[in-house]
Amino acid sequence: MRQITLSNGTTVEVECLSCAITSGMVEPDGGVVIETEHFHAHQDVAYPIKGLIILASKRHIYGFDELTEEEKMDYINLLTKIRKVQREVLGIEHVYYFYNEDTTHHFHTWMVPRYEWMNDFGRSVESLRPVLHHARNEMNDQENVNEVIKSIRMLIKALREERE
Ligand SMILES: [Zn+2]
């Protein structure tokens, strides 16, 4: 078991944070962005960047080669759906995707939007870590967090309308 401190300051003991979130045991701030039989998308508000989404599998797996055919289809469909509303609703022109198999959680893909201000931290992938660090430490003010929550609601609404 591992102790994890959530963004609201409470601590939980879980085996795997991704399992805890995708099973609904831990509710991410801002709620579920979209959920299917195999995947779960949410914003990690520990990094308050508008439109940043984490897409996690519901099964406790680590690698792409562990995905079933059905999960593969679900994954790519969800990823593209989320990408589409990020563009349409939040005007996000570019997104960085990353995913590492040696995670302490399980299979999850980060979708990190690229904004102008991020250029101060480098041009491309090299800026990712400093950008996330900056967001977590310097952008955690209530005003920005409210903006982020508002953008999550917009994404949720747009994704819901897509389905209808
Ligand atoms: Zn897990």
UniProtKB/TrEMBL annotation:
Alphabetical list of InterPro entries matching this protein: HIT-like, HIT-like_sf
Xref: Gene3D superfamilies: HIT-like
Keyword Hydrolase: yes
Domain HIT: 17-123
Keyword Hydrolase: yes
Annotated transmembrane regions: none
One GO molecular-function entry: hydrolase activity
Superkingdom of source: Bacteria
Coiled-coil region list: none
Keywords: Hydrolase
UniProt name for this protein: Diadenosine tetraphosphate (Ap4A) HIT family hydrolase
